[in-house]
Design a protein that fits this description.
8-stranded mixed β-sheet, 37% helix, 421 residues, alpha/beta, binds cytidine-5'-monophosphate, 5-stranded parallel β-sheet
Length: 421
């Protein structure tokens, strides 16, 4: 499970393809950019169309391909000025010597060169050409001009070339290019979030998933928690500008982008790591983990052998992690969760007081459509009395959307807003 998908659905990329054998790689590049959620429109020069057809790019991008400057029909659809304004990034890959020269000279004799002059979006070029053409003085001179003009030049790679030469001039692999684009937008988003996000400047620690309590070296006690809610909250906190550490029990989930993950197994280990994080500095502590209430009193050193009809294992109570952290003198803003099958609100409100929390989110796990393994959730959030905030019902939605609403609730409580439902 990844939390990156469709993150970039509001970002528009123009992929400009010029004439060169590397144009075939651009077909895969469109796929990868689409996989990351970008909207992609392809512009092709006449030279590019000698290597690959517009139809290929139309099918892959899901958009009409732009090839002509002076075509009234195309201009009526999305004209070159509109196209230039639409783009959040123009990526020219492969970029031929000819296009680089046109950009450097400021020519405007076809759609792409005109677009280059008309766009305010950042322009990236990925030159791909014969090694001798790459090294040629005019090419290098033109590239220097582009760099001076603020264009980002993605260096070609060395290797064997389609023409039989060996040297610099190969376009990087499409996966690498797509990743560079993704990282660029991630960094830009992160910079904005760190300044203006709801949790900008906050350090957040989140416990997630189940814990695993050993019986012997090969067996353990655990539960069905998948960690999905905690991981979604970690992603939402990061998107809100926080520095996020995720203390994850054994789960099979990808680490959300930008989040520091520390894997732990038992409740004792989770508590140890939580205390350690507290020492490092923590503004908000969010306990989503389904911590095992009991652990085995004495873990057997060797595998317990089958013997007799009964086996008695003695259990002792685990520490309550969230309550322990809440008791510390320099305590963060404490958020707990309650999963109940009945009297949901009454029990949750009781835990809020008993564990000295600032906020508790509770859900009814007797409902099959939400909770544990489901991708959806619905919750009611209560705040400690001193916040004078009304309880909030978070209607059934994806765990990502619920996580976003929880971030808003934390932000509001941190700012002591009084917000009636
Ligand atoms: O008491 P209960 O397990 O229902 O409380 C749930 C809340 O307490 C959750 O936020 C859970 O992560 C936290 N908890 C904990 N350590 C425990 C048990 C629960 O942090 N040992």
């Amino acid at each position: 499970m990844s939390f990156d998908l469709s993150v970039f659905s509001n970002k528009n990329i123009i992929l400009a393809v010029t004439g060169g054998i590397a144009a075939y790689k651009s077909a895969i590049l469109v796929r990868r950019l689409k996989d990351y959620g970008f909207n992609v429109r392809v512009v092709m020069t006449h030279g590019a169309q000698a290597f690959i057809t517009p139809l290929t790019f139309q099918a892959l991008s899901g958009n009409p391909v732009h090839t002509e400057l002076l075509d009234p029909e195309a201009e009526a659809g999305m004209g070159h000025i509109e196209l230039a304004r639409w783009a959040d990034l123009v990526l020219v890959a492969p970029a031929s010597c000819n296009t680089i020269a046109k950009f450097a000279a400021g020519l405007a004799d076809d759609l792409l060169s005109t677009l280059y002059l008309a766009t305010k979006a950042p322009v990236w070029v990925a030159p791909a050409m014969n090694q001798q053409m790459w090294a040629a003085k005019p090419t290098q001179r033109n590239l220097n001009t582009l760099v001076e003009d603020g264009v980002h030049v993605i260096m070609p790679e060395a290797g064997s070339q389609a023409c039989g030469d060996v040297g610099l001039g190969r376009m990087p692999e499409p996966e690498d290019l797509a990743e560079q684009v993704k990282n660029y937008f991630h960094q830009a988003q992160r910079a904005i979030a760190e300044k203006f996000g709801l949790l900008a400047g906050k350090r957040v620690v989140i416990t997630a998933g189940p814990t695993r309590e050993a019986i012997d070296p090969v067996r353990y006690i655990s539960n069905h928690s998948t960690g999905k809610m905690g991981f979604a909250i970690a992603a939402a906190c990061y998107s809100a500008g926080a520095k996020v550490t995720l203390l994850a029990g054994p789960v099979s989930l990808d680490t959300p982008n930008g989040v520091r993950r520390i894997n732990v197994s038992s409740a004792i280990k989770m508590l140890d790591e939580s205390m350690h994080q507290l020492e490092e500095g923590c503004d908000v502590f969010i306990a989503t983990a389904a911590v095992a209430d009991y652990r085995v009193a004495e873990v057997a050193e060797h595998k317990i052998k089958k013997a007799g009809d009964e086996l008695n294992v003695s259990l002792v109570k685990n520490p309550d992690i969230v309550a322990t952290i809440a008791q510390q003198s320099k305590r963060p803003f404490m958020v707990g969760f309650a999963a109940e099958t009945r009297n949901v609100e009454e029990y949750a409100a009781g835990k809020l007081v008993a564990k000295k929390l600032d906020m508790i989110a509770c859900n009814d796990v007797s409902r099959a459509d939400i909770g544990f393994a489901s991708d959806q959730n619905a919750m009611t959030v209560f705040f400690a009395e001193q916040y004078q905030m009304e309880k909030r019902d978070l209607e059934k939605a994806s765990k990502q959307e619920i996580a976003q609403q929880l971030v808003e609730a934390i932000h509001d409580a941190l700012n002591h807003k009084i917000e009636p439902v």
